């Protein structure tokens, strides 16, 4: 068998030169390495932590847990379950994941042998056979396989698989986001129920005061100015109660959308606020942050973009396709399956594009730009994740102190109201002084409710920032009843 070197003089060197150049540079088709200096550096500890926080690589496969059950509220549990089954954002994310997985199978199919069968009939003339037309009937099977010499198909398959993993992480991120939105909306609604009850109790007290003032005015004991002041206070407090009702209706409608229900058919009964407030321990490690699905999705998208750079570079190198066919062909249908009608063929095609007007170079530049954008997106997502944790940790710390201070303010305002009421009955202070004391107590009680509501919101926000439920040594995690302070860091 003659050697390849012996055949070289018979082939145009201008054709062989690009082929050899491609074979020599085949190693350039690999995806570029990511510079570690371009990745965000994780802090040794969170600013709001106690020094026991640790760092770890993303671990998106770990379960997020049923973290909302820590609030010990059956209504919240039911709403979260309904949202998991009927929320439209979750269903959209699930459909996107199914689409990405189908693309993975399509990419893998390009790496497998392609088998097909076919049959055909042609009629026409052949060169050297005369002008008389003839008919040719054929049937057979074909086999094709592209040899992945430079990893183009493998790179495309890997990129598609990473895209699917990114979509899976985005689905988890959507679930976590919806769960957190349901919890925060529901807890805000319960806080409004509590606040509305307080305001309506105040309206009732103001109305009783108004009745007393009107009787005294009719008896000629006080001036009309005192009556006008109390009527103003009653009307303004009634207006505040109606504003709270409007806000509650809006939150209820938002919950309906989150659980996939029509707002017209959805209702959450007014009930006492009995949700427990979980205490997230100070020593929760930042390995939980590594489970944030949005961080994982950004990382997988970055790796997919990296793989596509290698795919774009592989377009510079030749493709080798192996083909085989077998079947029968005959001008007469009766002779189609005779042994003499058999036909077969095998072949190999090595193709190398020489000039494409810069298309392949543009493809490499496009893939490189996508990698740069994905790297920047991943870096930003990690930084945002650390910011979210710091925000919620600091919020919980400050809210705990604010809750204690507000509790003292409520106690002092309540005592001031009692003393003012006693002094008013004894004629030592005016009606205006009593109303001022009552307004101060109402404002402080409402402020205390709002601080407690903010603690619930920050707790859910921290769970979301950490990527789901936390794991802690036995005896560390606890709950506190509504109204008690919770230390979050």
Automatic annotation (TrEMBL):
The lineage of its organism: Bacteria, Pseudomonadati, Pseudomonadota, Betaproteobacteria, Burkholderiales. GO terms for molecular function: efflux transmembrane transporter activity. The keyword Lipoprotein applies. Gene3D superfamilies: Outer membrane efflux proteins (OEP) (2.20.200.10). Keywords: Lipoprotein, Membrane, Palmitate, Signal, Transmembrane, Transmembrane beta strand. It is found in: Cell membrane. This is RND transporter. PANTHER family: BLR4455 PROTEIN (PTHR30203:SF33), OUTER MEMBRANE CATION EFFLUX PROTEIN (PTHR30203). Residues 1-33 form the signal peptide. It comes from Methylibium petroleiphilum (strain ATCC BAA-1232 / LMG 22953 / PM1). It is a lipid-anchor. It comes from the Bacteria.
């Amino acid at each position: 068998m003659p050697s390849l070197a012996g055949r070289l003089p018979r082939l145009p060197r201008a054709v062989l030169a690009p082929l050899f150049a491609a074979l020599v540079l085949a190693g350039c088709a690999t995806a570029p390495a990511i510079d570690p200096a371009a990745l965000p550096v994780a802090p040794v500890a969170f600013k709001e932590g106690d020094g026991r926080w640790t760092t770890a690589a993303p671990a998106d496969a770990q379960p997020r847990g049923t973290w909302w059950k820590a609030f010990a509220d059956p209504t919240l549990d039911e709403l979260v379950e309904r949202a998991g089954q009927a929320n439209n954002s979750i269903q959209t994310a699930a459909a996107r994941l199914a689409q990405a997985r189908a693309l993975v199978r399509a990419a893998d199919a390009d790496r497998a042998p392609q088998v097909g069968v076919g049959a055909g009939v042609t009629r026409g003339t052949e060169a050297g056979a005369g002008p008389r037309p003839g008919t040719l009937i054929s049937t057979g099977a074909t086999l094709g396989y592209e040899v992945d010499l430079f990893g183009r198909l493998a790179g495309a398959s890997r990129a598609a698989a990473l895209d699917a993993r990114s979509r899976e992480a985005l689905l988890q991120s959507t679930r976590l986001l919806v769960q957190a939105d349901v919890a925060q909306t529901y807890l805000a609604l319960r806080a409004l129920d509590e606040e509305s009850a307080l305001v309506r109790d105040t309206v009732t007290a103001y109305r009783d005061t108004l009745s007393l003032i009107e009787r005294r005015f009719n008896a000629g004991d006080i001036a009309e100015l005192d009556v006008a002041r109390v009527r103003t206070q009653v009307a303004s407090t009634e207006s505040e109660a109606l504003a709270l009702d409007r806000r509650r209706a809006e939150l209820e409608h938002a919950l309906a959308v989150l659980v996939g229900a029509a707002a017209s058919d959805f209702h959450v009964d007014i009930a006492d606020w009995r949700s427990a407030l979980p205490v997230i321990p100070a020593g929760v490690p930042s390995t939980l942050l590594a489970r944030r699905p949005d961080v994982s999705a950004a990382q997988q998208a970055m790796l997919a973009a990296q793989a596509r750079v290698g795919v774009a570079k592989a377009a510079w190198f030749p493709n080798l396709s192996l083909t085989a066919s077998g079947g029968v062909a005959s001008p007469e249908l009766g002779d189609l399956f005779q042994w003499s009608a058999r036909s077969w063929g095998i072949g190999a095609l090595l193709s190398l594009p020489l000039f494409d007007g810069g298309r392949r170079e543009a493809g490499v530049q496009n893939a490189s730009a996508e990698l740069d954008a994905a790297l920047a997106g991943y870096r930003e997502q990690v930084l945002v994740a650390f910011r979210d944790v710091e925000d919620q940790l600091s919020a919980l710390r400050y809210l705990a102190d604010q809750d204690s201070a507000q509790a003292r303010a409520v106690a002092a305002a309540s005592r001031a109201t009692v003393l003012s009421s006693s002094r008013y009955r004894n004629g030592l202070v005016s009606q205006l002084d009593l109303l001022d004391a009552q307004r101060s107590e109402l404002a402080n009680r409402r402020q205390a409710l709002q601080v407690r509501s903010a603690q619930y919101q920050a707790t859910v926000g921290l769970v979301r920032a950490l990527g789901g439920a936390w794991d802690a040594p036995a005896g560390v995690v606890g709950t506190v009843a509504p109204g008690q302070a919770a230390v979050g860091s």
